[in-house]
Amino acid sequence: MEFGLIVGLSFVMAIMSFWAIEERNLVRATHIYTLQTLTLVGIFLAIAWEYSIGTLYIWAGTAFLTKVLLVPFLILMLIKKIEIKHEEAPFGGLFHPFIIIGMSLSVAILLEPIFIRFSLLKLQIPIIVSIFVFMLGILGLVFRKSAVKQILAYCLFENGAHLTLALTAYNAPETVEMGILTDAIFSVIIMGALAMRFYHEFGSLDTSQANELKG
Amino acid sequence: MYGNMNIALNILLIIPLAASLIIWMTARGNSRRFLFALHLLAAVAASAAGLNCVAYVINGASFTALNDFLLFDSISGIFVLVISIVGLLINIYSVKYISWALDNKEIEFKDARLFFSLSHVFIFTMLLSVVSNNLVLMWVAIEATTLSSVFLVSLYKNKRAIEGGWKYVIICSIGLAFALYGSVLMYSSAYHVIGDAHSAMLWTSLMEHAKEFDPDLMKVIFIFIIIGYGTKAGLAPMHTWLPDAHAEGPAPASALLSAVLLKCAMAAVIRYYMIMNTIPDLSVFLPRIMLMVGLASILVAAFFIIRQNDIKRMFAYSSTENIGIIAAALAFGGKAGVFAVFFHIINHSVTKALAFCTSGNLQEIYGSRDINRMGGLVRIAPLTSVLLGIAMFSLAGMPPFAIFTSEFYAVVSGIESRQYFAVALFLLGLAIVFYGLVKKFIQVAFGKPAGEVVHNSEVSIAANLPLILLAAIICIIGIAPPEGLITLLNSAVSMVVGQ
Q: Which of A61, B42, B272, B349 could make an S-S bridge to B82, C-beta 3.0–4.6 Å?
């Protein structure tokens, strides 16, 4: 039953990730990201319960404090200051959703056998989902034009990597997880500050307008 | 001895971090002198601490500290040597450069405070990355180098600087995400072999067990690592952030990025290469990948160098070329190849620091980075023209300057490994770069100025003093490298080749 819960939450996380990337309203996208991260915390708790892995309770706690509470708060503050609520159309037009789903799923299915071979937890679906979310985030950074949406995409791939780490290497020294989390929070803060400057200079969040540097 | 080293290593990391905090918290009264004095004091102290650590490992000794989280060996020693000496001279130059920027009202005092404070955090993150014995801690430190330097790149509040900074943080984040996956995979596979979570993350343990790792998995990991850290190092085709970030930041920030930061990312690549190079099944795969990205970097950069008119972008592309030289020399292998790798890391750092700092002088003189608006430098500022000449001729690979020597070793290693076609492409790239750089130097030094000359005289000796020292180092290394340096290089080479 618990195994079913882990797989079920993994599917929810995958759907939430895609929704967060595709939602054009920035406030709503941030809320969906929060739910996606809450699902990640749920997966950590379900795995910790099912496999009696005490460390993952701590991971769930720190992820809740930093990623469910702090990071969305920072992003919502940024959106409030900037007063831009909607993102511009991404690169790729109508084909965009198909491109990112196709590419992310292909990479996830391709890499899953390699990851699962050395993974501490041989959970096929969650591993595929973790790589899928990671790739969605990477492609979000590439295809989305809004600076805020790119920050959300960064957070998504960070969540994907976090889930991969929990599945393949939950026994890694805690300093490692703390180091990665600290980097992630500082990244959001610094990218947010830079997005503010971007807005003040360009009067927009559309990063495709920044095209002076060539050659 | 071990206890001393443990303390020395802790001091090495504490000084720049503490300096950053002190500068940020105390230099608030608009007193330039106080800010500059704090910055210089911290830079000298950090450099002394670095050189003290290097002295311990010249003869090949290695030490671990902080529950094995830190490692200081000859390889770390080379990178810390670069950060200590080149970092110090850039930091000294930055005082004058920031002074100009304040005088010209390009920045405010609070921006100067931010610049100096972040410079020391940046130094800290680079030091941490090269002395880290833990592969994920190394990733954390390299990711932190991006975060600590992005506002150095975007110090000027204009569209170009913000565009450069944004591209820098986005592209490097994408690249480093792949490096994180590579690191996690490396840990997972090492844990299966070693069976201990702590040891499976340490370079020292990974080296001991390298031959037991799965070759197919190592290939996948290496691809992740070369995309990840290769992006940060500026290897083609992942180099696109580099000309934008290097060109738009203040000259000392560009110098730190190019002369030091790129090498820290290469340090990570070298550590992985060392582990995987011991696996017989990878003896063809690894050099082939390194050679491909190395030659691609050299040739792509050469193409952009000859058609570039922005002097800082030209130097930025030259960084991609030189990182390509390091990758190609690593691929050629053998003692000569690995010697060329470490020697070139030092030579390029010193030369590129001089090149970017001199570009700061040029901006002060011409008020522009456009080579087409420059000319007559020999008459306007003879000393700056000599310094620029030394930097550009060294970058062009002309004897007797430093870079010629390491490029020579790289070519020798290519011939020894009988990769004649690769050597031919390597030399073709260097020849194009030589033509491009010499032509541009002649235009700047002897051409007729096409634009306005804002500052029609030599810049002050205070600005030029650190540059004179950098030029002297380039000449000394090229003509008669110090014995201690050669010993340190040989110690590092034996760590890689002797496995």
A: B349
Determine the angle formed by the axes of helices B159-194 and A124-143, rounding to 10 degrees. 160
Write b or e for each residue in B79-90: b if 16 or more Cβ atoms lie within 10 A of its Cβ, otherwise e: bbbbbbbbbbbb
Residues on chain B touching A201 (C-beta within 8 angstroms):
157-159, 162
Nearest CA in chain A to B173: A154
Q: What's the pLDDT score for residue A1?
A: 44
Of B144, B169, B187, the CB nearest to A191: B169
Q: Angle, to 10 degrees, between the axis of helix B215-233 and the axis of helix B135-153? A: 20
3 state DSSP class of B447: coil
- Quote the DSSP letter at residue B282: G
Q: Do B191 and A186 touch (CB under 8 A)?
A: no
**Is residue A149 within 8 Å of residue A29, measured between CB atoms?**
yes
User: Which of B142, B170, B310, B369 has the most A C-beta neighbours within 10 Å, making it the best mutation to test the interface with A?
Assistant: B170
pLDDT tens by residue, B180-190? 999 999 999 99
pLDDT in tens, A52-68: 999 999 999 999 999 99
- What's the rounded Cα separation, in Å, for the pair B475 and B456? 28
Chain A residues within an 8 Å CB radius of B137: 175-176, 179
Contacts of B308 in chain A (CB under 8 A): 215
For residue B221, give both structure tokens: 């990991």
B111 touching A, CB under 8 A? Answer: no
B105 touching chain A per CB within 8 A: no
Name the amino acid, one letter, at B34: F
Mean local confidence (pLDDT), A93-114: 88
Q: Which residue from A183, A132, A100, A33 is spatially nearest to B173, judged by alpha carbons?
A: A183
User: Rounded distance, CA B447 to CA B435, Å?
Assistant: 16
Please give the backbone phi and psi of residue B65, each rounded to the nearest 5 degrees, phi first: -150, 170
| Residues pairing with B63 in the sheet | B72
Half-sphere exposure of B108 (CA within 13 A, CB side): 4
